[in-house]
Amino acid sequence: MRSPPQWLLAWALGSVALGGASLLIPLYVIELGGSAFILGILAATAALVGAPGAFIFGRIADRTGSFVLFIESALVTVTACLAVLPFIENLTAVVALNAVVWFCSPGAAFVTGQALAVDGGFVAR
Fold first, then answer.
1. Tell me, what's the pLDDT at 124?
2. 112 φ, ψ to 5°?
3. Any domain includes 16
4. What pLDDT score was predicted for residue 104?
5. For the chain, how many structural domains are there in total?
6. Considering only CA atoms, which of 64, 46, 63 is closest in space to residue 104?
7. Contact 79, 20 (CB under 8 A)
8. Distances from the Cα of 117 to the Cαs of 51, 98, 111, 113, 125, in angstroms?
9. Which among 48, 86, 87, 102 is most buried, taking Cβ atoms within 10 Å?
C-alpha cells in the first residue's frame, strides 16, 4: 500500500491544530483579562477574515496550479502565529494574530463547494 504524501499528513495535523486553536485562543484572551466584548471582537474578526482568505487563496491557487505550495505556506504561517501567541500579552495583538490565523486557515484546508437546495421541505411533500 502506498503511503500518503507528506504534505497530506502535515495538512491533517494542521487541521487538528486549528481545531485546538479555536478553543485555546479565546481561553487565552480570558486569561489575559479580556471581556465578553473582546471575545466578540475575536470571534467577529475570525469570521470576517476567513471568507476573504478562502477566496484569495483559492483564486491564486487556481491561477498558479500550486495547491500544495499554498497549503504548505498557510500551514507554516499558522504554525508561526500559534508559536508566537503564548508570548503576546497585549489583547489587541492577540486579536490581530487570531485574525491572521483565520485568514490563512482556508489556505491550509481543502475548500470544497456544494450547492444545496433549501426549499423548506416542499419537494419532500
1. 59
2. -115, 150
3. yes
4. 82
5. 1
6. 46
7. no
8. 21, 33, 19, 13, 15
9. 102
Q: Is residue 121 part of a domain?
A: no
Check residue 122 and give its pLDDT: 62
> Which domain, by its residues, includes 32?
6-108
- Mapping DSSP onto H, E and C, the string for the chain reads CCCCCHHHHHHHHHHHHHHHHHHHHHHHHHHCCCCHHHHHHHHHHHHHHHHHHHHHHHHHHHHHCCHHHHHHHHHHHHHHHHHHHHHCCCHHHHHHHHHHHHHHHHHHCCCCCCCCCCCCCCCCC
At 119, the amino acid letter reads: D
The answer to the question of residue 116 being in a domain is no
Q: Which pLDDT value is given to residue 74? A: 79
Per-residue pLDDT of the chain (125 residues; tens, 9 = 90+): 677 677 677 777 777 878 888 888 999 999 999 999 999 999 999 888 887 877 777 777 778 877 777 777 778 888 888 899 999 999 999 999 999 988 888 766 655 555 556 666 666 55
